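Weekly modeling sync, notes
Attendees: S.R. (lead), two postdocs, one rotation student

Agenda item 3: backlog of single-chain predictions. S.R. asked that every request posted to the team notebook include the full sequence so nobody has to chase files. The rotation student volunteered to paste the first one in as an example of the format we agreed on. Action items at the bottom.

Example entry:
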Amino acid sequence: MVHEYNESATSGKFIMHSGDKSFKGKGLSYQDPYPVNTFIYNKDEAQEVLIDMIPYTMPANSILPLVSNQHFIFQHPETITAWQFNREFYCIIDHDVEVGCVGFLFYGIKHPMFIQMNDEEVEELSQLEKNLSNELAIHDNFQGEMLRTLLKRMIIKITRMAKQQHESYQQFPDEKMDIVRRFSLLLEQNFKTEHAVSFYAEKLNKSPKTLSNVFFLLKQPTPSQLIRDRLILEAKRYLHFTTKTAKEIAYELGFENPAHFSRFFKQYSGKKTSDFKH
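Predicted structure, as returned to the notebook:
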């Protein structure tokens, strides 16, 4: 079953999937004019999910945040509930002061992030699910704002649960972890054109060495490794889900020389671009 709210004035979309056997993520192979972020709620048994062609096991009673450019297929989509929203409906970047999820739940370093819930949290999320379902059935002038309010509550709740399960957030103050979050967002916005750590360090008012030291202290991968990983991930998405050639992908990802891109991809992925079949 699919319930969809559309806001004509803003092109805002909020969609709830429940028992939808055809539900899956579209990834880069589709030209979707309304890209959406997604919360997946697996309330049944653990099941396999393919994310960008990599298999993972999603535990029972867990939440999975996914962003618009991720391709995903669930083993049993009919057993999950999913909520999707585009930036016109609720922009997580504009409202980051309120919900604090950017660069953590969405566009974060840890991927995928399976957030497991205890019985109390399951009960609370189930109530939110019921409230959202009820609100989607009401059609009046207040519907959009009520759905946004409930979505905001859900984002805050899930962010809190995730931070309680994230070792670094338990060990270090939010101010330091915010550097990681801000870096993650900057990386998502600029990785196709900016491959140097110095660019991100300058944006964060740090020296490259200081930025690297912060990531080392917080037990995170180095900034240079994260930049490389993001480029490799995007290259694999293009190779899997589009008809772009290696040369086209090289220019898309900011490489001036396609040969340099091919060597980069082979060095850090362990495979040649020609090993990927459409």
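Discussion: group reviewed the output briefly. The beta strands are 2-7, 12-18, 36-42, 47-51, 54-58, 62-66, 72-74, 80-86, 115-116.
Action items: rotation student to repeat for the remaining queue; S.R. to check formatting next week.
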